Amino acid sequence: MADETPESFIPYDEIVQEALRAVVGRVLSEVASDGALPGQHHFYITFRTRYPGVEIPAHLIERFPEEMTIVIQHRFWDLKVEEEGFSVGLSFGGVPSNLNIPFAAVTDFVDPAVEFSLKFQANEDEGPHAPEAEQDDAPKTEPVEDGSNVVSVDFTKKK
User: Fold this and answer.
1) Cα–Cα distance between 32 and 38 in angstroms, integer?
2) Per-residue pLDDT tens digits for 12-25
3) CA–CA separation, 20 vs 18, rounded Å?
4) Cross-sheet strand order for the sheet of 116-121
5) Could you tell me the pTM of the whole model?
6) In what order do the strands lie in the sheet with 85-92?
């Protein structure tokens, strides 16, 4: 009996990834409709800056050429959620900016108030290039010690 997994003609990896990214969309939609974050909730959202459809100011792409983490907490405005992504107004160094981010560009979604985290490891062919770790001053998140409320999804294909 072979130890190889049979080839699937159903794209389970893509289906699961899409469903988990829908969680991000639903959470942001609820915040957008309420106009504020409930309780102590706040979000760290990491995304690939050069992913198709990402629209951010050029100075942010220069500073974060691969990935960037934004914080949605106290000062944000015009949060709008569509089926494919979201837009939000944030201030960077006192300069107001509008960002448009497709959900497919998101690599991490963290709500540290309740130790909830979704991590996405997209296929290399999903965008122009695979994400790389950035050495920047964006907030970093630590793994939850007991693993509660943490979902890590690995979508690499077996060859």
Assistant:
1) 11
2) 888 888 899 999 99
3) 6
4) 67-72, 43-48, 106-111, 116-121, 150-154
5) 0.73
6) 77-81, 85-92, 95-102
- Is residue 42 within 8 Å of 71, Cβ to Cβ? yes
d(CA 69, CA 80): 18
Which single residue is written with the structure tokens 């709500």? Answer: 111
Tokens describing residue 58:
């050029």
What gap in Å lies between CA 29 and CA 38, rounded to an integer?
13
Compute CA distances 152 → 16, 78, 120, whole Å: 12, 30, 7
The phi, psi pair for 38, rounded to 5°, reads -80, 145
CATH architecture of 12-133+149-154: Roll (2.30)
SS3 61: helix
Beta strand extents in the chain (DSSP E only): 43-48, 67-72, 77-81, 85-92, 95-102, 106-111, 116-121, 150-154
pLDDT in tens, 80-117: 999 999 999 999 888 899 999 999 999 999 999 999 99
Residue written as token pair 């050495």? 135
- Domain coordinates in residue numbering, the chain: 12-133+149-154
> How far out from the chain centre does Cα 125 lie?
17
